[in-house]
């Protein structure tokens, strides 16, 4: 996508300096900064501190991290230690483990002198695949928006609600939940997006920044406004992203997603999840019981970062001194609240059978997970 008229991906390889470059998202939407990532520690910090964030982007970053690890030391021992090191950075988004497993499986059969080049080539491949996956999600999501447009008067606006940032900043490009929005807007369909603020890190501001840069009409709202808007017929559909989806279609996404799904169900508003296949965890079925929920630093809830009148970016405390903060970063939306999963292969019900039919090559692991989960 574009920033100030220039095309960017959320990460890119600097071949001249043989390093990865990223957008440091901690400073957005107020300041656009890029950063070179050139050490193992810098890769880990970039993931932990959410300089890069969003399940697909974390996976791509981890692939480049493994490429660096193989350049430093291509031995089996270092390969395993690097896998463990990066896998510990964030526990919830399954794309991290998916990318690390893919790297390890490709690299282990190779001789040590082949691994550095192969790892870098694989990282490029994973990044490019993510772009194509998200473009296809947008294509299938566009069809849903087109169907809703048919029920509207000519030129009438379609109102879409989204939560958190599942945009191009959370992927390598296009985004997941935003990809249908961009494609609908580019096709001339009048849309408007309600953007949840998504406390505590206010990632909705990133979505607003993205949509504004692309010219998509949108409104930034507090997290608790969504249900009110649905009650008054001001939301035509909800599209969110996902950090991990189970084999039966339970969806783990940014905290607050579950409440939006409940409100959508109560008001007969379609609730769709944009789902890239690497985000499916075929080894588990029950999301509430089996998905580990990351508990982040409490200071993210007790403090907030913003732009001061003098143009400086500062962090201020919003709670009384001494008040403890709790910060579960994700929640799980059970599959019965999900209207459909928008994948790169099409739209499917959020069921074991739906996912297996869409991705038959993974049907056996999914069936095994269901049996294990009762």
UniProtKB/TrEMBL annotation:
Protein's name according to its UniProt entry: Methylthioribose-1-phosphate isomerase
Active site: 243
Record-marked site positions (Transition state stabilizer): 164
GO biological process assignments: L-methionine salvage from methylthioadenosine
Amino-acid positions noted as binding substrate in the UniProt annotation, renumbered to this chain: 53-55, 90, 203, 253-254
Entry EC number(s): 5.3.1.23
Family the entry assigns: Belongs to the EIF-2B alpha/beta/delta subunits family. MtnA subfamily.
Keywords: Amino-acid biosynthesis, Isomerase, Methionine biosynthesis
Origin organism lineage: Bacteria, Pseudomonadati, Pseudomonadota, Alphaproteobacteria, Hyphomicrobiales
Function: Catalyzes the interconversion of methylthioribose-1-phosphate (MTR-1-P) into methylthioribulose-1-phosphate (MTRu-1-P). Also catalyzes the interconversion of 5-deoxyribose 1-phosphate and 5-deoxyribulose 1-phosphate. Part of a bifunctional DHAP-shunt salvage pathway for SAM by-products.
A Pfam family reported for this protein in Swiss-Prot or TrEMBL: IF-2B
UniProt GO MF annotations: S-methyl-5-thioribose-1-phosphate isomerase activity
InterPro entries: IF-2B-related (IPR000649), IF-M1Pi (IPR005251), IF_2B-like_C (IPR042529), Initiation_fac_2B_a/b/d (IPR011559), M1Pi_N (IPR027363), NagB/RpiA_transferase-like (IPR037171)
Enzyme class (EC, first level): isomerase
Catalytic activity of the protein: 5-deoxy-alpha-D-ribose 1-phosphate = 5-deoxy-D-ribulose 1-phosphate; 5-(methylsulfanyl)-alpha-D-ribose 1-phosphate = 5-(methylsulfanyl)-D-ribulose 1-phosphate
Pathway field: Amino-acid biosynthesis; L-methionine biosynthesis via salvage pathway; L-methionine from S-methyl-5-thio-alpha-D-ribose 1-phosphate: step 1/6
Organism name: Ahrensia marina
Amino-acid biosynthesis among keywords: yes
């Amino acid at each position: 996508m574009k920033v100030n008229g220039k095309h960017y991906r959320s990460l890119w390889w600097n071949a001249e300096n043989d390093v990865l470059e990223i957008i440091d998202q901690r400073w957005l939407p107020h300041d656009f900064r890029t950063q070179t990532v050139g050490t193992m520690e810098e890769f880990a910090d970039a993931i932990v501190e959410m300089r890069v964030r969003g399940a697909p982007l974390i996976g791509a970053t981890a692939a480049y991290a493994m490429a660096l690890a193989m350049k430093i030391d291509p031995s089996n021992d270092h390969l395993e230690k690097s896998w463990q090191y990066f896998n510990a950075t964030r526990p919830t988004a399954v794309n991290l483990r998916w990318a690390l497993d893919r790297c390890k499986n490709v690299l282990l059969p190779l001789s040590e002198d082949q691994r550095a080049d192969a790892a870098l080539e694989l990282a490029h491949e994973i990044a490019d695949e993510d772009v194509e996956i998200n473009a296809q999600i947008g294509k299938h999501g566009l069809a849903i928006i087109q169907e809703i447009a048919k029920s509207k008067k000519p030129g009438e606006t379609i109102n879409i609600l989204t939560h958190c940032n599942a945009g191009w900043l959370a992927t390598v490009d296009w985004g997941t939940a935003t990809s249908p929005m961009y494609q609908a807007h580019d096709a001339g369909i009048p849309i408007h997006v309600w953007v949840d603020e998504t406390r505590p890190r206010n990632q909705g501001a990133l979505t607003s920044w993205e949509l504004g840069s692309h010219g998509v009409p949108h409104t930034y709202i507090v997290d608790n406004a969504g249900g009110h808007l649905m009650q008054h017929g001001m939301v035509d559909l909800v599209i969110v992203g996902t950090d991990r989806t189970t084999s039966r279609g339970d969806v783990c996404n940014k905290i607050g997603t579950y409440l939006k799904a409940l409100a959508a169900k109560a008001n007969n508003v379609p609730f769709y999840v944009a789902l890239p296949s690497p985000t499916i965890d075929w080894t588990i079925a029950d999301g509430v019981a089996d998905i580990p929920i990351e508990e982040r630093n409490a200071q993210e809830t007790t403090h907030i970062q913003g732009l001061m009148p003098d143009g400086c970016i500062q962090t201020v405390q919003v709670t009384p001194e001494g008040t403890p903060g709790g910060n579960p970063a994700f929640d799980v939306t059970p599959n019965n609240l999900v209207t459909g999963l928008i994948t790169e292969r099409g739209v499917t019900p959020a069921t074991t059978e739906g996912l297996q039919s869409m991705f038959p090559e993974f049907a056996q692991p999914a069936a095994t997970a269901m049996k294990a989960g009762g």
